[in-house]
Amino acid sequence: MMTRELHSVLAPEALSGDPAARPSRWSRPSAGRWVLPLLVVVLLAQMAFAMVTTAVQQTPTIDEPVYVGTAAGYLHGEGLRYNPEHPPLGKLVVGAGVALADPHVDTSFTGTQERLGPHLLYESGNDPWRLMLWARLPVIVLTLLFGLVVFAFAKELAGRAAALAALALYSFSPDVIAHGSLATLDVPMAGFLLTSVWLLWRASRRPRLYLPLAGAALGAAVATKMSALPAVAVLLVLAALPEWRGRATRWGRALLRPAVVAGAVVAVVWAAYLVVDPRLRWTSQVHVPTVHGMRGLLVDLMPFPEAYRDGMRIQFGLENDPWQGFLFGRLYTGSLWYYLPAALLVKTPLGMLALWAAGAVAMVTVRRLRPAAPYVLVPAAVLLAAAMEGSRDFGTRYAVFLPMFLAVAAGCVLTVRWRWGPVVTAALVAFVGVSSLRTYPYYLPYANEAFGGPARTHLLLHDSNVDWGQDLGRLADRLRERYRGERIWLVYKGSGVPSYYGIHASDPLTVPAGRVHGLLAVSDSAAAKAKGRLAELIDSSRPVDEVGHSITIYRR
What we know:
By secondary structure, the protein is mainly alpha-helical.
C-alpha cells in the first residue's frame, strides 16, 4: 500500500504525461502548489550553504590567483596582457566580485602571470580572505542558476518528479559544489553549455526566440573556456535537427538555424574581448608556439579575435608538454586514455553513477524521450571524448559537465513504468545526499565509499582531485592548535603564501635529510609525485596528522 501511494506521488504519468491522467489544477490541494517550489529552494539553499562555507574556509587554489589578478587588471584598463590561454568572459564574471571587493591594484606590476595573483593578494595591501570570497561569489551564483536550468530541462522532458530528482543530484554533486565554489572557469563553461542545449531543445518549438539565445549561451561557453569548442559542431547540428526530422526536409531553414546560432557565438566571443579592450590591443607576454597541420588550419579559420587564436595556439603548445599524472598509486608521464573514466569512478557518488547509467538507458529506450537523447547525451559524450584525448590528467574538473547533463538524464528514469522505480530512485538520491553531506566541507578530495572516502583519495589521485592548495589556512590553524612552538618543515603545492597565514616553515629539500627534525607537512599532490630527497624524507617519517584530506603532517 505504501509503495502504491508513493508511486502515485512520484510517477511521471501523474505529473507530466497524458493531461487526462493528471488531476485538474482546481482539484489539487492548494497546499501542493508551494511544495515543489519549497523543495527547490531547500535543495538550492543547502547547495549555497555548502559552497559559501567552503569558499570562506579555503585558501586560493592553484589556478584562482591568475584569474583574479587578470580580472583585476581588466577593471583597471590593463587589457588582454595576462592569461591569453583562456578567453575573458569567465574572468569578467569573477571580475564582478573583484569590483565589489575594490582591491588595491598595482598597475605598475610587470611580472609574469604566475606572479600576478600572489602580488595582488599578498603584496598589495589587500586582504586575501575577503578578496577571494568576493571573487568566488559570482561563480557560486552562476552555479545555483545552472541548477535551475537542470530543473527546468528535466521538468520539460519528464515531469516534476524527474526535475526534483535531477536537481537533487546536481545540488549534492561533490564535484559541482567543489568547483562551483571557486573563482575558476570549469563550472561556468559547463553551465553555459547546458543552458545552450536546453535552449536549443526549446527552439524546436519556438525557434525565433530560442535560437539566438542558444547561440548566445554557446558563445558564452566558448568565450569562457576553449575546451567548449568541440561541442560547437554538435550543437550546430542539433540546431538543424528539427528540420531534418520533418517529413520533408526544408534545406533553407535547416541551414539558417545553425547559421543563427553560429552568428550569435561569434558575436558573443567578440563582445567579450571588446569589453576588455575596445581597441583589441594585443601583444602576448608569453611565447606563442607555431601550430602546424590540421590544428594550425583550424586556428587560422576561427572567426575570432587574434588574441583568442593565439590562446588556442598556447593551449595546443601546452598539450605537447610532458605532464605527469597519478592514478591508483601509479606515477606516470604523459596521459592515459582511461584516466577520466577511472577518476570519475572514484569521485562520483555510487548512487549517482547508478542513476546516470539508468537515465542514459531510459533516454534511448523510452519512446517519448528519444527525441531528447541527442541533446542530452551526445554533447556530453563528445566533450568527454575530447577531454580524454587531452594530455593533462589533472582532475575530474575537466568533465564537470557530466554531473550537469547526466543529472537531467538521471531524472528521466522516473518515466520507466516499473512499480519499484520511484522507491529505488528516491533511495539512490538519498544515498547520494548522505554521501555528499558526509564529506562536508571537504568536497575537493571527495571519493565515494567504494574507494574509502575522502581520507583515501590522495592514495588514488592527485592535483585538483584532492589537493589544489586549498588547505593552507587550515594547516595554519592546526599548527597553532596542536603543535605550537615546534619546528616546521613544509613542502606545499599551491599559490598561497604560507607566511601570510602565520606558517613559518623551512624547506626540507634545501638541507641534508639528517637535519630535518620536528614536523614535516607535505601537500598530498607533492607526496604523490615524490622522488629523490622528498621520497626519502617521507619514507623515513611517521604520519601523525592530516589536514583537510589534502596535507599530511609527519613527525621526524
